[in-house]
Amino acid sequence: MREFAYQRVTQVREALTLVAENDGSRYLAGGTNLVDLMKCGVEAPTRLVDVRSLPLGGVREGADGGLVIGATTTNSDVAAHPEVRRRFPALSQAVLAGASGQLRNMATVGGNLLQRTRCAYFADPSQACNKRVPGTGCSAVDGAHHNHAVFGWSRHCVATHPSDMAVALAAFDAVVHYETLDGGGEIPLSEFYPPVGDTPQQETVLPSGALITAVSLPKAALSPWSRYRKVRDRASYAFANVSIAADLGVHDGVVRDVRIALGGVASQPWRARSAEAFLRGGPASFGTVPGGG
Amino acid sequence: MAFHRLSTCAVALGEKGVALNEDTHSEILLHVNGVKHCLSVDNRTTLLDALRERVGHTGTKKGCDHGQCGACTVLCDGRRVVSCLMLAVAAEGAEVTTVEGLGGDGELLPIQQEFVRLDGFQCGYCTSGQICSAVGMLAEYAEGWPSAVTAPGSEPVLDAVEVRERMSGNLCRCGAYPSIVRAVLETAARGEVTG
Amino acid sequence: MSGAAPAVGVARPRVEGPAKVTGRARYAADVPMADLAFGIVVVSTVTRGRIRDIDVAAVQDMPGVLGVIDHRNAPRLNPDAGHFFGPDGGLQLLQDDVIPHAGRPVALVVAETLEQARAAAEALPVTYEVLPHDTDFSADHPAGRAAMALFDGPVDVGDVDRELAASAVVVRERYFTPEEHCSAMEPHSATAWWEGERLQAVDSNQGPFFIATVVATLFSLPLEQVRIRTEHVGGGFGSKGLCGPQLVLAVMGAMHFARPVRVTLSRNQVFLTTAMRPAIEQMVRIGADDDGRLRAIHHEAAFELSPLAEYIEGCTELTKTLYATPALRTRLTAVPLDILPPYSMRGPGAAPGSFALECAMDEVAERLGIDPLELRLRNEPTVGPASGLPFSTRNLVACLREGARRFGWASRDHRPRMRREGPLLVGTGLAATSFSVGAFPSTASITAEPDGTFTVVVNATDLGTGARTALTAIAADALAVGAEKVRLRISDSDFGPAWSAGGSRGTTSWAWAITEAAAKLRSSGDQGTVTVDTAQLLNDLPSRERHSYSAVFAEVTVDPATGEVRVRRLLGMFAVGRVVNPLMARSQVIGGMIGGLSMALHEEGVRDPVSGRHINADFAGYHISAHADVPDIEADFVPDYEPGIPMGIKGAGEIGNVGTPAAIANAVWHATGSRQRALPIRPDRVIEEHPLQ
Ligand SMILES: Cc1cc2nc3c(=O)[nH]c(=O)nc-3n(C[C@H](O)[C@H](O)[C@H](O)COP(=O)(O)OP(=O)(O)OC[C@H]3O[C@@H](n4cnc5c(N)ncnc54)[C@H](O)[C@@H]3O)c2cc1C
Ligand code: SF4
Ligand code: FES
Ligand code: FES
């Protein structure tokens, strides 16, 4: 690990300035991904700006009645929040399906969205990887890619996004809020992670130096019984082989509306739009699903 | 490598402050088990390495150094964390509790007693982490936190399935899992987690 | 002094329990040491090749760096040094520019602090000439050759082909198990320093005396000049049976820098540089009559190894003793590849071997339409089928019957895919096993202290097996005193020769020496010090088939839509001789069964098909079972006694692993109707396209 300076900030503007000032600066939140990758030699910041003391923690009601989750809220606090559990149970489930109790106590919402892929070649600087060093090639394409992308990949990169939380957020059409020195902005989660194309190093559309301040959820989900289901190689403490977040609005036995997002299958939470279209307006029964019974 | 030496921690840092400088080293005040340690650390030092190599508390173990095993679990302000992914500088201001700080003067906590009585370990290498994790986990449960196996819409009830899911961040290669789960449930039944 | 209640057979918590739950128990990397320097290992990123250059100058001036040791300045090592199987090229670290396998240590960077050593090690530029490699294992690899026959050599009894031709059913299948890693939670760590003329080291290993002999040979030092100790050891499972790279490099560091040097492997390096179980492919043919009587067993196993060192993965050993059969043929093939030398991992040979044999037996039962339990009972041998020797004791039937009773096996519908619970399929399976037991020569000495206590010195190691507690009890009973009168000292090469903790022979070997010493001391009137060596006694032990036995029963649920397999119940009945401490023995066998569960469902070392390098060499990629994977496990013991060994004890350290993978695989078949002949039973191997049809 390279030597670095460390600063803890309490003002958003101070954080933005420190990061803008120096190319090698990075925000540090829970550190569960950044410190890990620094140990692997994948990340080598020269300055860490610790954002955990910024006034960005907690879950509150937004002006439109939706939920606003502060960027530094820990994953544990998101999952345990009564309103999240009541209105967006799939989000609580998704967060709880990720990592471990210890890691969720450290990990934050902002850091979770920006965690890097778990592709083994990416984490090993002695291997070629277009995402880590553009133009070096993708070791996974011809290598072991058992758990890599099945949707939206390119020859340049077949990695998946590892976040469980983001899958549920995608199903709820959440919006990411950020600040920069030139002002703030918001990005719908469905547009937050761009297609891989030939720029796998371009993982989000967040402006450079931007600080995520919050994620907002709409006033109401389609239903109060949204669910998250994760399949993995062991029963807990493992990344997804595949996961699904689904929210189904049913009225009189008819699927009024439906949102489905898949995890572990693409470089972004994958909205299953055709499946949604297929189900929408149809009968809400098991038989609807091809191969179901 | 410039080394920024500040006169004394107390003066430089006040109660909860961090020495703000452009240096690669910091003077920090680490609260461990109720004792304040004034340390000059390389910013790269993790809380785990600071505890083990600087404070001399080797009870906290390193199994992987990447957040993948739970052996290094400690409590920060009462919440369980993996100390291998927390920088020592980032732990400044938090009250850190390690396995050495759990029991009072020579007295084992109920959770420690149950681990011994029910043989909740073999080699013992994962044990400090399991015990710290269990203490943190029982507090989380007491606050009503759900887990991945809690049915949505209902409140969790601590049974073996809940304990297993909540403790899954602590690997044990000796395979002491069933006795650990029993020890945690027995402790919970005794209703006195921290003694 | 007599009249103390016996300590053996009593369930007692471990003597070191309070130290382990308070963090006071010290492991190798915990030992405080003045003037300590830290060494970080740099390992090869190519699978085969040569080192072109190591640019030491690039890191020499980094903060805190004391220096770098590589093949140009390392002390010369004795190439004769080796392990159980002969000279081991895996020990010859930093001797030349040759890279024989990925992850081979190429340098040791030593600095004042851990952070500084790590930073310099990461920054050290190493360039390689890359040579073509071969890490592609298969049983019919052209390089395959007969394995060394030190044990588990080829056996031919009767005429296998004729018996198979005459059989009512013949099962012929292949079974695959991947590279598996011991993965003890404590990464290997050693601290070495000189005290005058003596080399001292605290190391995490399974037997300090044996390790000291290896170090002495390797560095061409007289044995008296080498002292190796262990503190508490955070698990071994085979990987700490060898002199590890941490110790070789720490010693080099101490020699080179003339101060204490600590080398602790990173978790990644534990995967890359410490012994693993090799990948194995097996072929089993079994022929049986209509009534379930076996006519022939043909079991061949091929495993990978390294040209650097011999090794035997004795997969067919239990096939030679488990069932009566008029014809038996076994073969072991070794396939040299460009890999780290494999070595024994908990349940070596037996764990993968029993997976193949016991799955094949299940298929025989299926084909015959008989109860798999009944099939085992019908094929009990009266003498060793290969050796012709009598069994010292054989309590497999008791394990099977008692296990079946407790598990409720009688009500099982033996047809597959008959039980459903909502979207889940449910199935049960069993496996029978044996594991060879015995003892190796050891020394022990006991001193009668003036205050009426006894100091017992034996070179045992406690890897979490409970050796401290068990040997204290054994010594107490042998001396006919209470356990509180016994002071046990272990784990110091100065204590003299003893077998290491391994091969399920640690406790039997040490206990034998202790009981001999105690008998001698008592006959001399409890005076002074006596020292014994059991070498001769062991020679006098008559040849017998000596084994532990067990029957393992598993119940699984399978979600055919996702391929997820969960073990819902696991029960093991064991015959492991006299049980010294039921609490710890149960922990041992349950731990083993969890190792077996982990092997069945999770563990798989994966190599990059292009570079031949490990790509999941950490705990996020290489999964071992976590809490949530493990149900409450029932394990118990049938009455058993080994007549040839003092106190009637056998080993219990490894048999738990054996049998469990087959029991689970058979249960998965029973649930789904599909056979799983490759481990681990991953979701993608189980998932069904039309799950609910
Ligand atoms: C062993 C292990 C298992 C795991 N398993 C899972 C799993 O199953 N599912 C899952 O979803 N996750 C899993 N994780 C990942 C974990 O959830 C993430 O590491 C975590 O959510 C990251 O959050 P953090 O606050 O620690 O981020 P950090 O590590 O602090 O930061 C991550 C990145 O985000 C940036 N960043 C942080 N906050 C902000 C902000 N406010 N604005 C702008 N940039 C910011 C940082 O600069 C950095 O680049 C696992 C991690 C580990 C180590
Ligand atoms: S899949 Fe993507 S992250 Fe993985 S090696 Fe290829 S480019 Fe790198
Ligand atoms: S050492 Fe921290 S989680 Fe393994
Ligand atoms: S007791 Fe050995 S790893 Fe848990």
Automatic annotation (TrEMBL), chain A:
What is the residue range of the signal peptide feature?
Answer: none
Q: A Gene Ontology molecular-function term?
A: oxidoreductase activity
Keywords (alphabetical) are:
Oxidoreductase
So where does this one cross the membrane?
none
Q: Which residues form the FAD-binding PCMH-type domain?
A: 1-222
**Coiled coil regions in record:** none
Q: Does the keyword Oxidoreductase apply?
A: yes
Q: What is this protein called?
A: Oxidoreductase
UniProtKB/TrEMBL annotation, chain C:
Q: Does the keyword Oxidoreductase apply?
A: yes
Q: Aldehyde oxidase/xanthine dehydrogenase a/b hammerhead domain location, by residue? A: 22-132
Keywords (alphabetical) are: Molybdenum, Oxidoreductase
Q: Name one Pfam family in it.
A: Ald_Xan_dh_C
Q: Which GO terms describe its molecular function?
A: iron ion binding; oxidoreductase activity
**Gene3D superfamilies, per database record:** Aldehyde oxidase/xanthine dehydrogenase, a/b hammerhead, Aldehyde oxidase/xanthine dehydrogenase, molybdopterin binding domain
Q: What superkingdom does the record give?
A: Bacteria
The protein, known as: Oxidoreductase
